[in-house]
Amino acid sequence: MQVNDLEKTIRQILKEELSTVSHNNASESVSQPEGLGNGIFTTVDDAVAAAKQAQEIYEDKPLAFRKKVVKAIKDGFGPHIEEIAKATKEETGMGTVEAKVAKLKNALYNTPGVEMLEPEVETGDGGMTMYEYTPFGVIGGVGPSTNPGETVINNSIMMLSAGNALFFGAHPGAKKITRWMIEHLNKFVYDATGLKNLVVSLDKPSIESVQEMMHHPDIAMLAVTGGPAVVHQALISGKKAIGAGAGNPPAMVDKTANIDLAAHDIVTSCAFDNNILCTAEKEVVVESAVKDELVKKMQEDGAFLITDPKLVDKLADMTIGKNGAPDRKFVGKDATFILDEAGISYTGNPSVVIFDAPKDHPLVTTEMLMPLLPIVTCPDFSSVLKTAVEVEGGNHHTASIHSENLPHINKAAHRMNTSIFVANGPTFAATGVGDNGYYTGAAALTIATPTGEGTTTTKTFTRRRRFTSPEGFSLRSWEE
């Protein structure tokens, strides 16, 4: 071949390559399914088929393409944060708009992405071994009503960064905002890349459709946030499952603690979004020497103290259903709403209701998801730690301690064996949300405690694959 011919050939190849990346570098010749538009379908089969087709296109794209997808999600949702928070509050009736704004910003801007996928390489006289993180395929996700928009954002960024597509099963109690999120996410991604259906869902979500999805042959992996029943369904599906289950986080306070700080952190964190976070403080276990001071400081920070045991039992009877679960009427509701419904008079605008309770009281042992905070008193630190382990219930989810005694902190962290452990701070800090909107670490919304992955990242939704080349690739030495 002549030089001129070679040059023409190269130019033609480059022209063809450039033409394939028109429409923002992603236009595909394959016709992608429409369904009802923007990722919404009427059947599980159609939704999964569309996601599978999109994922097969997507996994062949370079990492730069994935970064473009994530950027489209962040840029697209950024101007709508307050709108999403208000719509979520309106539909679910839970939490506060202010807290939801903080959680949405955390999910959008603080979720780890493609940067997590740096390869690992080992070289030596025996050649080279490399580990890379590659997609599973189509992941089946199930979201909660407590954090619907945040979970769509958080899961989508992690899973799409890993090269997967996502079928998202909406909670019936948050189906409107979940659909809005998925429709808009698809629009943002399509406008930026020309690719459709990376995240799909159904127009009419149901328990039956989630069960069908879990057993669908083209769903490669499951990521489920919810109660024990839905997590159990995922675990017996025969697929790899990431289970984000229940928690009942105790806040321990020993006699060395900075009581002012402990009281502020516990009340603020318990009240955050009216306690619907599974990581939020659900009970306080305190050493008797500082109990009275702690209660006084908590009242100064906005907690309302109930001293009559009969009123405490009345709260339990009212807020816990016959099935032993929290009554949804009170989940995520304001402390004042709960007090009003119980006919308990109060002054001011309390954010949390506190009261003494034994360790076996149902308001201690039940994950209430509302701003009711029982206080269990123990004679010494050993008893505090033993009691905290008991009331956490073996969920291995979240616990915290307020102490200036380093051995106490170390022993408690070891003994609690939780996915999240916080010392001298509000537990929401460990989810990536910080006081006054500052962020402290990667966003953590899908916390896989039953299956052990803990706070999930992009890597959680990848296969770790090993590539070995025995013949070389070591720059340190060479032998013919």
UniProtKB/TrEMBL annotation:
<dbReference type="InterPro" id="IPR015590">
    <property type="entry name" value="Aldehyde_DH_dom"/>
</dbReference>
<keyword id="KW-0520">NAD</keyword>
<dbReference type="InterPro" id="IPR016163">
    <property type="entry name" value="Ald_DH_C"/>
</dbReference>
<keyword id="KW-0560">Oxidoreductase</keyword>
<feature type="domain" description="Aldehyde dehydrogenase">
    <location>
        <begin position="43"/>
        <end position="428"/>
    </location>
</feature>
<dbReference type="InterPro" id="IPR012408">
    <property type="entry name" value="Acetald_propionald_DH-rel"/>
</dbReference>
<dbReference type="Pfam" id="PF00171">
    <property type="entry name" value="Aldedh"/>
</dbReference>
<dbReference type="InterPro" id="IPR016161">
    <property type="entry name" value="Ald_DH/histidinol_DH"/>
</dbReference>
<dbReference type="InterPro" id="IPR016162">
    <property type="entry name" value="Ald_DH_N"/>
</dbReference>
<dbReference type="GO" id="GO:0016491">
    <property type="term" value="F:oxidoreductase activity"/>
</dbReference>
<protein>
    <submittedName>
        <fullName>Aldehyde dehydrogenase family protein</fullName>
        <ecNumber>1.2.1.-</ecNumber>
    </submittedName>
</protein>
